Amino acid sequence: MASQLELELGKLKNAIIKISNLAENQVLEAMKALLSEPVAEGKEMKKNENKIDKLDVKIDEICQNVFALQQPVASDLRFIMSAMQISNEVERIGDLALSITKKAKSIKEKHDLITKHNILDITKDVEEIVLKTILSFQNLDQRSIKEVFVLDNNIKQKCNEAIQGIINEMKLNSKTVVSGTHLIMILNHVERIAGHCSNISESVYFVINAKIIKNEKN
Q1: Spatial separation of the C-alpha atoms in residues 177 and 171, rounded to whole Å
Q2: Cα 6 from Cα 136, distance rounded (Å)
Q3: By three-state DSSP, how is residue 16 classified?
Q4: pTM score > 0.90 for this model?
Q5: Which of 42, 45, 124, 147 has the fewest CB atoms lying closer than 10 Å?
């Protein structure tokens, strides 16, 4: 029969997976909005964001309960500490995805800008990094962790190249300034999403190896 600690840790893992899946859905909808594809109603995304916020609070409560009432061993402590960090990172991903969706509505001449500056490839990488991040936690998979780090670097490079291209285009064509500015802000959000995914995978690495990888992952 499972101990109370095992039950609480099971609840904690399930809550992390649930909040991660909600954030993944938000990112997918945000990327659709960026590419001018049909997206879920704004109310639905806002509803999911509220669910993410509530789960973030619930995860903190579970962690506090375990600390207060149980006696976790070292490996469980690593998991609990990482779960709190992961939950915060996921909550930020959800916020950024919602912001991208809102900003995407303000971009005119969207198709031309997206086509010229490789935005489609960037959205595919973002969708992949979020999925790999969830898998790295769900399966405690070191291969997925490494793939997340590679994708993070790739996304940063592609976003920086796209931003520079957009800036150059705005210098030549004043009509693109407003739309280009909004797209640059979105690409900055995309970079931050990738960064949060990398942070989550660092936490998963810590759970597995009892070692901080931040200065070694490159």
Answers
A1: 8
A2: 21
A3: helix
A4: yes
A5: 124
Token pair in block for residue 77: 């402590």
Give the up-direction half-sphere exposure of residue 7: CA atoms within 13 A in the CB hemisphere.
7
148-160 pLDDT tens trace: 999 999 999 999 9
Q: Per residue in 50-101, pLDDT tens?
A: 999 999 999 999 999 888 877 788 889 999 999 999 999 999 999 999 999 9
Tokens standing for 180? 């280009």
Contacts within 8 Å (CB) and 24+ apart, 51-56? 51/22, 52/19, 52/22, 52/23, 52/26, 52/90, 52/91, 52/94, 53/91, 55/15, 55/18, 55/19, 55/22, 55/87, 56/19, 56/87, 56/88, 56/90, 56/91
